[in-house]
Design brief:
The complex is a heterodimer of chains A (about 140) and B (about 425). With about 140 residues, chain A is α+β, with helices and mostly antiparallel strands. Chain A contains 4 helices and 6 strands; from the N terminus they run βαββαβαββα. Chain A has helices at about 15-25, 50-60, 80-90, 120-130; strands at about 1-10, 30-40, 40-50, 65-75, 95-105, 110-120. Chain A is elongated. Chain B is of the alpha/beta class.
Chain lengths: ~140, ~425
């Protein structure tokens, strides 16, 4: 499944990440998954939320730079080796992964979800589906 | 068609201008020798008598005047008339050190209005125009100078002064202002705010802008013209000499004509103090020919520029000075390399960045650090680090090739760097703050 991911530019300064996340909290946007890419000068907060439109609006209204990207959501069993299998499948098919992050659905949950940013969404979807993953 | 305010002067032959300048110079030297102790003392020390000055060819015999002389004689030491003849005082904006005070007689104010009227006319403004003046009114010369010129040409003046940007835009919109006068950095801020407020561009009636009081680049000019839908003109001036209008941009948009019937401009090598030829960079030096209250002789502006006597397509014969690159005061020496902030502006605008930036210079372990905070744009933002790094690298390389020195670029979110309502302050030199200079 292709899902909308919201990326936000965050300066590498104390309190900046807190300010961004509080904007979302105040707007009652629920964060479903997140990851942060960081460099020495700035970070990119990437989130999947329950209401993308609302999140983008509140961030833009507050002068944040925001980008919405289509990423691949894959459901997988919460068991050893499943992630490795996904990555191997994509690698063997020549699909590069820009970045990926996962979240467990809850403590002891038997399934987890994976967010994948790849070069070719369509091809990756097909490959994973053929391998039996819920994409 | 090109329009002039005082065509007999603006298009006079070189011969006529030289004659006028020479006559006025002879009279000026006499006046300052008789009335200003500092000039008499300097001339006596240099062995020059007023009788030795016959024409502008003798200008080099006269001593130079520096900003320090103005501070040393503060407040009224350089006035050439008694205070009863002075009808107005202004003071420098004090951007670099202690403030100085200047005076104007009634005639001086007339001259000032005339030269600003020439500027406005050259920009195409006339009786039917509504002129929005966002220069500060007060001790700063910006507001009152342009104001006088605008009234002189019979235009409708809106003396908004500086501050309260959203209100400025409401006024500009509701009053139907056609010309905007302010610093280029404030014009850019206004343009951004118009966009942000969602005011439809077609409802803003601006068609021209007269910008000055700080160094700005050709790229900034293009950007302002595009954003505000105007033709942008340059104005140059300084409190010490008169205020805005000492030199003005014309339709050619390539340099500023110096009002030579009122001022003599020279371009000198700041080290040797000898004149440099046309086309070569040097420090601009002004002599006030007609000013009564505060006539400066060979005043070193510390502005760096280039002169050109080539014929201008606008028909004016006044010598042209280039847009000043900046004041020698603004120049930073970083790791031994001379850096003018205006060079940075050029690079930023060429690459599509906002011209708002902040330079932070410091010294760590005896080496200068040079950080440049730049606002990134939505287009440049990416969800991947490599995507952003690509832009960062292009910018860093362009800066390095222009400045000849490496810069550490720090990206900031848009609209987060400080906007100025007057002269922009873009340099934080921590070496000075901590006495490391």
């Amino acid at each position: 499944m292709l899902i909308d991911q919201v990326s936000v530019f965050v300066e590498n300064q104390e309190g900046r990440l807190a300010a961004v996340t509080e904007l979302l909290a105040d707007a009652e946007v629920d964060i479903l998954a997140l990851s942060i890419a960081d460099t020495t000068d700035f970070g990119i907060l990437r989130i999947v939320v329950d209401d993308t439109e609302k999140a983008v609006k509140v961030l833009r209204d507050n002068d944040r730079i925001v980008k919405v990207t289509k990423v691949l959501g894959v459901k997988m069993d919460n068991q050893p080796g499943v992630f490795a299998k996904v990555v191997r499948l994509l690698a063997d098919n020549g699909i590069g992964i820009e970045y990926t992050y996962a979240y467990a659905a809850g403590r002891g949950a038997d399934s987890a979800a994976l967010v994948l940013r790849v070069g070719d969404n369509e091809k990756a979807t097909e490959i994973l589906k053929n391998a039996g993953f819920a994409v | 068609m090109e329009r002039y305010w005082q065509p007999e002067m603006e298009t006079a032959s070189r011969e006529t201008l030289t004659k006028i300048q020479s006559e006025r110079l002879v009279a000026l030297v006499k006046r300052v020798y008789d009335n200003v102790p500092l000039y008499r003392e300097r001339m006596d020390n240099a062995g020059v008598k007023p009788e030795d000055i016959h024409s502008i060819a003798d200008l080099g015999k006269l001593p130079l005047t520096s900003k320090q002389d103005l501070r040393d004689t503060y407040p009224y030491g350089l006035f050439a008339v008694p205070l009863k003849d002075v009808v107005r005082l202004h003071a420098s904006s004090g951007t670099t050190g202690k403030q100085i005070v200047v005076g104007y007689t009634k005639n001086d104010l007339e001259t000032w209005s005339d030269i600003c009227a020439r500027q406005l006319t050259a920009a195409g403004a006339g009786k039917d125009d509504i002129i929005h003046v966002s220069y500060g009114y007060g001790l700063f010369t910006g507001g009152f100078g342009i104001h006088g010129g605008a009234e002189r040409i019979g235009a409708t003046v809106v003396p908004v002064s500086s501050g309260n940007t959203e209100r400025q835009i409401t006024i500009m919109h509701d009053f139907g202002c056609t010309f905007l006068c302010c610093t280029p950095s404030y014009a850019m801020y206004l343009a951004e705010t118009i966009e942000k407020m969602g005011v439809p561009k077609e409802e803003i009636k601006l068609r021209g802008g007269i910008f000055g009081a700080e160094p700005w680049t050709k790229e900034m000019c293009d950007s302002l013209e595009q954003k505000l839908g105007i033709k942008a003109f340059d104005v140059y001036g300084l409190t010490e000499i008169m205020g805005p209008g000492v030199a003005f941009g014309c339709s050619e948009q390539n340099g500023l004509h110096v009002n030579e019937d009122h001022f003599i401009i020279e371009c000198i090598d700041p080290e040797t103090e000898q004149p440099v030829p046309d086309g070569q960079q040097g420090e601009l030096v002004f002599t006030c020919l007609t000013k009564e209250a505060f006539p400066l002789v060979r005043f070193r502006t510390r502005d760096i520029g280039v002169l050109s006597h080539e014929a201008c397509s606008c028909g004016r014969t006044f010598v042209k000075m280039s847009k000043p690159m900046g004041r020698t005061d603004d120049m930073l020496i970083i790791r031994g390399v001379n850096v003018f902030p205006s060079q940075i502006e050029t690079v930023l605008l060429k690459l599509g960045y906002s011209p708002n930036y902040e330079i932070i210079v410091d010294r760590v372990n005896n080496t200068d650090t040079f950080d440049l905070r730049v606002e990134m744009t939505e287009d440049m933002f990416s969800d991947t680090v490599s995507g952003i790094a690509k832009y960062e690298r292009t910018l860093t390389e362009a800066l390095k090739s222009t400045l000849g020195i490496g810069v550490h670029v720090v990206l900031a979110p848009p609209h987060t760097l400080k906007r100025s309502e007057g002269k922009a302050k873009r340099v934080i030199d921590k070496r000075k703050e901590t006495g490391k200079c």
